[in-house]
Write a sequence for this structure.
């Protein structure tokens, strides 16, 4: 702290302490009849019976009205027959006489002034009334010059000035009822004296022309500008920007490499005829110029102000300027009237260069004041790439002033300053065409291959819809992401600054992302619906007996081993390869670490979404890689199902489609030569049509006598167990290894043996049960990309990474709860195993 500031602070503390101890009074606490004596710091009353009252500032006493000072602290009132002299020091008698018993004193007429002192400054013995000379009139008891008082015979008085009658008569008559007569007379007066090269009159006339929105009426305030036959006075101000063929458009500006700011100054044309250039933004409210604009960053601010605050300081016309260190260039302004219509140039050459903030005009029909104010100042910046110089940009700037009328019921107005950018194309649209075409074609072909395999497995033709929806969603999402990343990489460093995306590119990216989320949601909903309707069988080999005609069938669905396997299968239905519980926090950490780099990015949701998506997939890859390493070291969690089946002596059979099932062999009787071993212990079953026909006959109530002899599901389990124990009459099966391409794309491309031969498909060296394909484990790509799309969708909408992460986690948990609920319901209906036991 500086010594001077320290002394002031100590003095203030001492005074406050002294006041608190002594009980002294502060200024402003005195009564209306008291004044504050700063010497004793107390309130005092003025002396009584001396014609003194409290002064206006409240710190002393002064003489009452119609009183004069006699000495220090004493005044005396003047008599009723006296007046106070001009200097306020003496009482001067008036000429009075008695009339009808009353005393009547002289008063000066309207055209006279009161004189109380002589030429030598001494008070007169009697007040005198003096008439002002020709050409002067009384004003505040002083004779001032009056030009209208000495008008010639051929002149007429117009608003206190003498104008030639011929000029007034020859001037076009103003027939409209939009202007009050007094305002029209002022315009006529300023117009005449402007033709006489009166600079101040020309300034007033220019301001009126601007406030009347550059009126095209020949009798209006803009007459000297729009009538070419009238010689223009030397002091006539320029209200439009005129350019020739050799001059450069003032709205076109070359941006050098690395130039990322644009400075706008404000030119104020005062009523005294001066032009002031304001460059400091602190001199005006934030909703007005001057302003420093960051290239590529939109800006908007609202200011609510009282109308009385704008009257004294904003009643002048303004002009925007673009300034650099060595240059000052005026910018054109486009005006929009209160009715929403633009001011047309008409006979005006070039573009307008002035605007106003507030204008009060008298109503033509009533004695009211109408207020028109600047509602919105809109600055549009259109940036184009320089065709001649690849390292520079061309900027076109347009300024639009939009006006509105103030309600007479309110004393406040709201003004808005808005900066909008129209950016050049960054190549995103072209990238969307390329990436969208390539990815769309490849993924559509893959979707058709999946659909064809689904039909072979016994699926419905309707499944083409979710398959194509998922493929198109991936194509849209990754095409938008790759195109945006490519544009960001191409823009960075090319011009010294990274420009934001254009509005069309921004809207197109949003459309792609939002469409991808909707289509992917359809695919995920179909996946969950399809998985919650598959047939499930738990085959207990310890209770297996060959199906003889008279052998009773016993329902053992409440067996503890069956319940244990059912619970494990219920738990595995929603198990993910890469859980969002780890991906979301790691994504937020990566985004936080990238925060310093975000300052170099433009304020554009498209680029932010691309960088946020990059953080998501980076976290996803890291979590997936760590999970793969853990599975290699500790063992994959999918192997637990096969071990559980072996330990319980149960086998699991899940039908994905009508002719396609997944089998996990759990028979622990190794003495049987028919026992499946090796890769066949966890295989896929391509069912022969005859097997499926028998399966349907046994599963349909009322067909044959087999159903009445026991529970239908137990009978089906025994039938399917017999298929793996030994071939039924007329049925056989063959083991077949899936090709590399089939394992990679998860589709059946090779036609298996036709007829009544069922095929057991296995993957060499892969101990993971194929039944995980009917759980979330086998749909990791669809679910993982869906999580990424939800995260990107919310982040693009809100711009908050934390909200996007929370919404993704909530959506995952809700979907998991629904999937578990419907999956358990399906398992209970298909196996009669109640998981509550």
């Amino acid at each position: 702290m500086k010594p001077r500031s320290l002394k002031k602070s100590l003095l203030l503390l001492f005074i406050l302490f002294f006041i608190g101890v002594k009980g002294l009074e502060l200024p402003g606490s005195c009564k209306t009849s008291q004044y504050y004596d700063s010497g004793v710091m107390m309130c005092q009353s003025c002396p009584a019976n001396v014609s003194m009252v409290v002064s206006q500032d409240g710190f002393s006493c002064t003489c009452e009205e119609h009183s004069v000072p006699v000495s220090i602290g004493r005044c005396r009132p003047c008599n009723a027959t006296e007046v106070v002299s001009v200097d306020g020091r003496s009482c001067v008698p008036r000429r009075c006489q008695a009339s009808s018993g009353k005393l009547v004193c002289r008063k000066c007429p309207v055209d006279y002034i009161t004189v109380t002192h002589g030429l030598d400054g001494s008070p007169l013995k009697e007040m005198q009334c003096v008439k002002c000379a020709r050409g002067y009139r009384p004003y505040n008891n002083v004779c001032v010059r009056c030009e209208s008082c000495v008008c010639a015979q051929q002149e007429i008085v117009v608003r206190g000035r003498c104008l030639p009658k011929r000029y007034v008569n020859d001037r076009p008559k103003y027939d409209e009822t939009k202007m009050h007569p007094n305002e029209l007379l002022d315009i006529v007066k300023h117009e005449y004296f402007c033709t006489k090269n009166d600079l101040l009159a020309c300034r007033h006339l220019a301001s009126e022309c601007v406030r009347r929105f550059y009126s095209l009426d020949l009798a209006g305030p803009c007459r000297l500008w729009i009538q070419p036959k009238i010689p223009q006075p030397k002091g006539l101000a320029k209200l439009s920007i005129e350019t020739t063929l050799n001059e450069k458009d003032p709205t076109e500006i070359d941006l050098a490499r690395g130039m990322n700011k644009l400075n706008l100054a404000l030119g104020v044309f005062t009523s005294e005829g001066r032009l002031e250039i304001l460059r400091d933004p602190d001199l005006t409210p934030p909703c007005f110029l001057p302003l420093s604009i960051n290239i590529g960053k939109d800006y908007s601010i609202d200011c609510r102000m009282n109308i009385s605050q704008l009257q004294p300081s904003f009643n002048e016309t303004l002009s925007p300027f673009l300034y650099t260190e060595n240059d000052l260039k005026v910018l054109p302004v486009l005006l929009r009237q209160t009715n929403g219509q633009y001011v047309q140039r008409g006979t005006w050459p070039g573009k307008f260069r002035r605007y106003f903030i507030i204008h009060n005009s008298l109503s033509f029909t009533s004695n009211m004041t109408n207020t028109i104010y600047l509602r919105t100042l809109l600055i549009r910046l259109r940036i184009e790439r320089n065709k001649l110089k690849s390292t520079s940009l061309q900027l076109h700037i347009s300024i639009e002033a939009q006006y509105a009328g103030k309600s007479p019921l309110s004393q406040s107005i709201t003004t808005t300053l808005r900066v909008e950018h129209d950016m050049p194309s960054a190549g995103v649209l072209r990238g969307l065409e390329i990436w969208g075409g390539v990815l769309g074609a490849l993924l559509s072909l893959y979707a058709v291959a999946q659909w064809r395999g689904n039909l072979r497995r016994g699926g419905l033709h309707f499944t083409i819809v979710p398959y194509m929806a998922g493929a198109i969603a991936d194509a849209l999402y990754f095409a938008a992401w790759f195109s945006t990343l490519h544009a960001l990489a191409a823009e960075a460093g090319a011009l010294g600054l990274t420009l934001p995306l254009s509005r069309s590119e921004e809207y197109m990216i949003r459309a792609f992302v939002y469409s991808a989320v909707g289509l992917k949601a359809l695919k995920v909903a179909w996946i969950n619906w399809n998985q919650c309707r598959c047939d499930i069988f738990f085959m207990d080999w310890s209770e297996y007996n060959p199906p003889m005609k008279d052998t009773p069938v016993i329902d053992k669905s409440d067996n503890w081993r069956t319940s244990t396997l059912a619970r494990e299968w219920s738990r595995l239905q929603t198990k993910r390869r890469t859980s969002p519980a780890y991906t979301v926090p790691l994504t937020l950490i990566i985004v936080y670490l990238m925060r310093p780099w975000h300052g170099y990015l433009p304020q554009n949701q498209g680029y932010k979404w691309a960088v946020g998506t990059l953080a998501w997939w980076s976290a996803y890859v890291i979590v997936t890689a760590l999970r793969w390493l853990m599975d290699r070291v500790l063992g994959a969690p999918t192997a637990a199902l096969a071990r559980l089946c072996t330990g319980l002596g149960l086998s699991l059979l899940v039908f994905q489609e009508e002719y396609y099932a997944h089998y996990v062999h759990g028979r622990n009787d190794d003495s049987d030569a028919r026992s499946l071993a090796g890769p066949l212990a966890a295989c896929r079953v391509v069912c022969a049509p005859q097997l499926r026909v028998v399966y349907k006959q046994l599963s349909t109530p009322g067909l044959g006598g087999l159903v009445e002899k026991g529970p239908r599901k137990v009978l089906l389990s025994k039938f399917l167990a017999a298929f793996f124990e030994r071939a039924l009459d007329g049925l056989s099966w063959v083991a077949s290894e899936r090709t590399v391409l089939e394992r990679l794309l998860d589709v059946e491309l090779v036609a298996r043996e036709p007829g009544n031969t069922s095929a057991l498909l296995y993957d060499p060296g892969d101990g993971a049960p194929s039944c995980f394909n009917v759980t979330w484990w086998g749909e990791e790509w669809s679910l993982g990309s869906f999580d990424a799309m939800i995260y990107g969708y919310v982040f693009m909408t809100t711009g908050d990474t934390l909200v996007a992460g929370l919404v993704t986690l909530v959506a995952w948990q809700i979907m998991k709860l629904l999937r578990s609920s419907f999956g358990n319901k399906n398992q209970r209906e298909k196996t009669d195993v109640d998981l509550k036991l």
About this structure: The chain has 19 helices and 37 strands.
